[in-house]
Write a structure and sequence with these properties.
four-stranded antiparallel beta sheet; mainly beta; five-stranded antiparallel beta sheet; elongated; single chain
Length: 144
């Protein structure tokens, strides 16, 4: 009989109230060679602004060269009147190779829900907040 394995979620960004665009600190999750299937990133939005025009765009970035951050995931945009929620996005190892190498700058456009299968040795969350908004959220990751 095979025993179910229990995996631990790692903190990428501690919970906090944020009202301006920013980025978290670098977090080490695993060496790229240790990632078998991918990484699941989970955002817990525990408090949102109240206006429908207040928005939060949340990204996951990785560093592959020790200098530049590359956006690899863009969560679905969260609006101020959307309430608390938990959203998971998966960056799989075996994704389409079409997006690989096409864009790799921090400011690259990445559509909502889009991911790129790029794995570095450090990860962080970055976010864009618009409107007169305050969002309270955290991000964690599961390497699998």
């Amino acid at each position: 009989m095979e025993v179910k394995k229990v995996f631990d979620w790692a903190e990428v960004l501690a919970s906090g109230a944020r009202s301006i665009t920013g980025a978290g600190s670098a977090a080490r999750l695993a060496e790229p060679s240790q990632i078998l299937n991918g990484i699941a990133f989970q955002v817990d939005l525990t408090a949102a602004a109240t206006g429908a025009t207040d928005t939060l765009d949340l990204y996951i970035e990785t560093m592959m060269d020790g200098v530049n951050w590359n956006r690899i995931a863009h969560f679905t945009q969260m609006v101020g009147n959307g309430g608390a929620k938990r959203v998971v996005i998966v960056v799989p190892v075996l994704a389409s190779l079409v997006t690989l190498g096409q864009q790799n700058e921090e400011t690259d456009a990445l559509a909502e829900g889009e991911v790129r299968s790029m794995f570095g040795d450090q990860y962080r969350a970055s976010w864009d907040i618009s409107g007169l908004a305050e969002f309270t959220f955290s991000v964690k990751a599961l390497v699998f």
